[in-house]
Amino acid sequence: MSWLLSLSPYMWILISIALLALIFGAILGFSSIKLKVEADPIVDKIDALLPQSQCGQCGYPGCRPYAEAIANGDVITKCVPGGQPLVEKLADLLGVDAPQGVFEEEPVPKVAFIHEEMCIGCTKCIQACPVDAIIGANKALHTVIPDLCTGCELCVAPCPTDCITMEKVKPSLDSWNWKYDQKLIIPVVQIQTQNEPEQVKS
């Protein structure tokens, strides 16, 4: 134990700080376990169905707050980007009847497009984008990353030169909505080709 007495005051300070950090870390770890608030699973399921556009057209600052509001009894018809298909999915999840006629047309996927010849690099659209889908710097041309854009249109209004337009997403094998009737029975017909020899019946 004599070596402890030979330690310099600076070493004692470091040891004291380390012990305090260990004690406070243990207290925080214990508190996080004892005071942990379990998330509502229905909110997670609702949030998973929402388009995550974070556009605020529902009156809430994002999709997660709207999911919490729906779980607390708010209507399921406030999501404009989701449209009627989302209403039907939410109604099926919550076990309620889906309101009809709220959305006259099915939503068309769109992304923002910046006409760079009109862009003055004011960064207002960058500040308005909730998902950081616009890149650029002050007094430099801005560009939208289509794969990140959710089509919320929040960047359109702040633009002082009206250089941002919403363009329809061109369908591809990945983005096309392959609709089909689950009750539809597709008959399978076997066709014998000319090169295939006929089977001889015994």
From TrEMBL:
List each copy of the 4Fe-4S domain by range: 38-96
Residues bound to [4Fe-4S] cluster 2: C119, C122, C125, C159
Chain positions recorded as [4Fe-4S] cluster 1 binding sites: C55, C58, C63, C79
Identification of the protein by name:
Ion-translocating oxidoreductase complex subunit B
Q: Where in the cell is it found?
A: Cell inner membrane
**PANTHER family per record:** ION-TRANSLOCATING OXIDOREDUCTASE COMPLEX SUBUNIT B, OXIDOREDUCTASE
Q: Does the keyword Ion transport apply?
A: no
Named cofactor requirement(s): [4Fe-4S] cluster
Q: From what superkingdom does this record's organism come? A: Bacteria
GO biological processes? electron transport chain
* Top EC class for this record: translocase
Described purpose of this protein according to its UniProt entry:
Part of a membrane-bound complex that couples electron transfer with translocation of ions across the membrane.
Instruction: State the gene name recorded for this protein.
Output: rnfB
Q: Which UniProt keywords apply?
A: 4Fe-4S, Cell inner membrane, Cell membrane, Electron transport, Iron, Iron-sulfur, Membrane, Metal-binding, Repeat, Translocase, Transmembrane, Transmembrane helix, Transport
Q: Summarize where [4Fe-4S] cluster 3 binds, as residue positions.
A: C129, C149, C152, C155
